[in-house]
Amino acid sequence: MAIQAAIMAKGWLIGVMVEREGEPVAVRHFFAVGHEDRAKAEWKAIDQALLIGQIAVSPVGGLEPVHAVGELPAKTIAVQGLKPGDVRELGQRWPRRWITVDAPSTPGDGSG
User: What are the start-end ranges of the H helices in 9-49?
Assistant: First the structure.
């Protein structure tokens, strides 16, 4: 039963633009948030990001200060052990272990 709940858990990958003292521009930090509601996941990521520095007040390089990068696949959540309510800082680099990019299927290629 617990394994089934972990697989069914939902989560979001959230990017937050953080201004740090001494840095010329805000830098995007990634957070994995174990919450089904996107808006609540964004707020939880903001709370965690405030421990690092101030949140940017306007877009930086075309990126909003807080944005949902994407929903985390259930399999990834289970493999990484993200539990409901968890917030994990993933750093500044693209978190490739946390999100997968599926190639879109093309009509007639047999994949769709």
Answer: 38-49
Residue 104 has pLDDT above 60, yes or no: no
Separation between Cα atoms, residue 40 and residue 43, nearest integer Å: 5
Number of Cβ within a 10 Å radius of residue 31: 27
**What is the C-alpha radius of gyration for the chain, rounded to an integer number of angstroms?**
16
Rounded to 5°, the CA angle 54-59-62 comes to 135
Which residues are CB-contacts of 3 (< 8 A; sequence separation ≥ 6)? 78
Tokens 């089904």 -> residue: 36
Task: Tell me the C-alpha distance between 61 and 58, whole Å.
Answer: 10
Amino acid 21: pLDDT:
86
Q: What is the pLDDT of residues 8-44, one digit of tens each?
A: 448 999 999 999 888 889 999 999 999 999 999 999 9
* pTM of this structure: 0.79
Are 34 and 81 in contact, with CB atoms under 8 Å apart?
no
